[in-house]
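Posting for a labmate who doesn't have an account.
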Amino acid sequence: MPIELNHTIVSSRSREEGATFLAELFDLKVGDPWGPFLPITTDNGVTLDYVTQADGDITTQHYAFLVSEQEFDEIWGRIQARGITYYPEPFMHRENEINHNDGGRGLYFLDPSGHGMEIITRPYGSGDQYDD
């Protein structure tokens, strides 16, 4: 059996807010609660299990999603419609720009708990172009 990522836990200020935010942007469904977790499953079967972290600071994580060109346009449109600030690079210096790395497109944005979310249309290293 090949090794595959099955699930990961995403700490959030509110599991409902975090899961709903991402599910709506990505046109995915929020699953039924399982214990303290509220899951979202991506098309390749990886589950993001959102959990409310009541105490202390949330350690910021980075989650990158490979999407098709059409999905990029749809997600980007939802990001813009909601007035969510996005960036072409992970340091988040240039607001409301996208990148064209590896001959594709990509952008970064923050979720309600401050996690860095990224959508890309080409895997890193798949092309010879890097512009950001």
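Reply:
Got it, the structure tokens are right above this. The mean pLDDT is 95.
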